[in-house]
């Protein structure tokens, strides 16, 4: 995951770039097109979490420090610290 800042309006957006190279990106906010260069690929790390209600496990991307999750099996919502 790469955080991009638009040179036009400063809007930031997260995009998943796993490949090295240069990419044309269009800002979601102001429609400016700009080029980004990915010089190293950093694949998103995944981790397993277990539902506190039913124990069902699923893999989630480690993005940020806390994620609001909803169990696919029983529908329980909880906040998971990463
Ligand atoms: Zn913009
Ligand atoms: Zn569950």
Write up what this structure looks like:
A hairpin with a 6-residue loop joins strand 3 (21-26) and strand 4. The strands form four sheets. A two-stranded antiparallel sheet has the order 1-2. Strands 3-4 form a two-stranded antiparallel sheet. It has no helices and eight strands. It is mainly β and 82 residues long. The mean pLDDT is 82. The radius of gyration is 17 Å and the shape is elongated. It has two domains: 2-38; 46-81, no CATH class. One zinc ion is lined by residues 6, 8-9, 11, 27, 29-30, 32.
As for the number of domains, it is 2
Distance between the termini: 16 Å
Uncertain parts: none
* Computed structural class: mainly beta
Please bin the fraction of helical residues: under 10%
Q: Given the C-alpha coordinates, what overall shape results? A: elongated
- Bound small molecules, deduplicated: zinc ion
Order of strands across the biggest sheet?
1-2
Quaternary arrangement of the chains shown? single chain
> How large is the count of helical segments?
0
Strand content: over 45%
Count of strand segments: 8
Major sheet attributes: 2 strands, antiparallel
Average pLDDT figure: 82
Q: Give the SSE string.
A: EEEEEEEE
Radius of gyration over all CA atoms, rounded: 17 Å
